[in-house]
Specification:
Helix 3 packs across helix 4. The protein is of the alpha/beta class. The chain contains 15 helices and 21 strands.
Length: 480
């Protein structure tokens, strides 16, 4: 018998419709969950807004810190359980899901740390005649009701990055997980409840109706919208926000990597392979476009092929698996169509290019696809790496910068001047030197530029965005 998850709402609801949650690897039913209707969404908004409006009932900093610390402790006791369940529902291999769970625990602890170290500032006064006898300081207050819409590819840590900062900032939060992977979200919210967070301050709404989801996001009571997902949906929702609502959008990229002739290939090749094939390429900053100097392109291609051909593809709950399934069968079909189109348009298939059992796709390498192919211009979100030859690094940088997406980029070289040139000229919010584009720690800024997003992610930055800085000005004759 599968587990059924009721709506995580401050007000109980019965008679709701439900959906089955299906494992992407074998399409088995692993759980069922209630789906929010219009009444449940209105209730969640009303309750969250009421909590924010009643300032006498705001959670103290001490309470928030204690709740977050206890949540992390509860999660730590269940690392193995959380790992297996995240791997089952999302398809990310066990070895990588475990890393994600450990990161999520650390993310919750980081939320407590940023709150502990949060402070205002003194604004200079008594420095001209107008400011004589004045003192001005700032403090921080929660911005208001937060609505967080999340993605499937990091089902636990993404929720931690959206809900954790909201709790730390003191904002009532309503989170909408994706229907592909809601279970990790439910578990995190349950840990928060067990740690003492009142249900009114964090409610999860599984919503399958697009109009209802839009209604939740664009309601006038929402002060901050946190979105992780496709650019098409994110920008559409952002355009409909109520006036004054702030937002943070994290979309995808088509991450470029430049490999110079002097790169240490013994460390470079495994790094770009990991960055491209990690979670079957279903990461917003996965290595997708490799610009490789023509003098080493044959060596790089052959070494990457050897790694790709030896990766273990299959059951994500198996501790030896390195590449799991794509999230849906339709994504497998789409990926294969894009690869076939690229070959038709002139790309050389080095390896892969085929569907495997259980919604998996073979790790694939394409050499010199057309610059107009979908694999060259759009986010593949699958285990597909494209390699392009270049002779001049400035030309490689120009091609890397040619798309309307800008997120993280990388350059592999031993030459500090080359590294600095790439850092300065690449259109990216972050440039990795001698590491792959998917490198991230959870306290660093993480930002999509251009069509890749809006605002800055990373726990301290999200925490900052979910607050307002409020100034107190005092005039006193004793201030001199």
């Amino acid at each position: 018998m599968t587990t059924h998850y009721s709506l995580q709402s401050a007000k109980p609801f019965s008679g709701l419709s439900s959906i089955n949650i299906v494992a992407p690897f074998d399409e088995s039913i692993i759980a069922s969950a209630d789906v929010a209707n219009a009444e449940a969404i209105e209730s969640a908004l009303e309750i969250a807004h009421k909590m924010y409006q009643d300032k006498t009932g705001w959670l103290s900093k001490t309470k928030r810190i204690e709740t977050l610390q206890k949540t992390a402790t509860l999660m730590e006791a269940d690392i193995e359980y959380l790992t297996i369940e995240a791997a089952r529902e999302g398809g990310k291999p066990y070895i990588d899901s475990k890393v994600e769970v450990i990161r999520a625990i650390d993310s919750i602890r980081t939320c407590a740390d940023v709150l502990r170290n949060n402070a205002g500032q003194e604004i200079p006064m008594r420095v001209n005649p107008a400011s004589e006898n004045h003192l001005a300081i700032t403090t921080h207050e929660p911005i208001g009701v937060v609505v967080a819409v999340s993605a499937f590819n990091h089902p636990l840590n993404l929720i931690a990055h959206q809900v954790g900062p909201a709790v730390a900032a003191g904002c009532p939060v309503i989170v909408k997980p994706t229907q592909d992977t809601p279970l990790s979200c439910f578990r995190l919210v349950e840990y928060l409840y067990q740690a003492g967070l009142p249900k009114q301050w964090c409610q999860s709404m599984l919503i399958t109706d697009r109009d209802l989801a839009t209604k939740l996001v664009t309601d006038s009571r929402v002060s901050f919208f946190s979105f992780i997902g496709s650019a098409k949906v994110g920008w559409m929702l952002n355009s409909k926000l109520t006036p004054g609502a702030r937002s943070a959008l994290e979309h995808g990229g088509v991450a470029p990597v430049i490999i110079e002739p002097d790169a240490d290939l013994e460390s470079t090749i495994p790094a770009v392979a990991k960055g491209g094939f990690y979670h079957a390429g279903q990461v917003c900053v996965s290595v997708q476009r490799i610009y490789c100097h023509k003098s080493i392109i044959e060596t790089v291609t052959n070494k990457l092929k050897t790694i790709a051909d030896n990766l273990i593809v299959g059951d994500p709950t198996d501790k030896t698996t390195e590449v799991g399934p794509l999230i849906r069968p339709l994504e497998v079909d789409r990926t294969h169509d894009w690869v076939e189109d690229a070959i038709t348009e002139g790309a050389t298939l080095i390896t892969g290019g085929k569907k495997k059992d259980n919604n998996c796709y073979a790790p694939t390498i394409l050499l010199n696809p057309s610059p107009t192919s979908k694999v060259s211009t759009m986010e593949v979100f699958a285990p597909v790496i494209c390699i392009y030859s270049y002779t001049d690094i400035d030309d490689a940088i120009t091609k890397a910068n040619s798309l309307p997406f800008s997120f993280q980029a990388a350059v592999f070289t031993k030459n500090i001047d080359t590294a600095m040139k790439a850092y300065k000229k690449l259109n990216a919010s972050a440039v990795m030197v001698n590491d792959h584009t998917a490198f991230r720690v959870d306290w660093m800024p993480f930002a999509g530029l251009k069509q890749s997003g809006l605002g800055i992610g990373g726990i301290p930055h999200t925490f900052h965005d979910m607050q307002i800085e409020k100034m107190l000005v005092i005039k006193s004759a004793e201030l001199f």
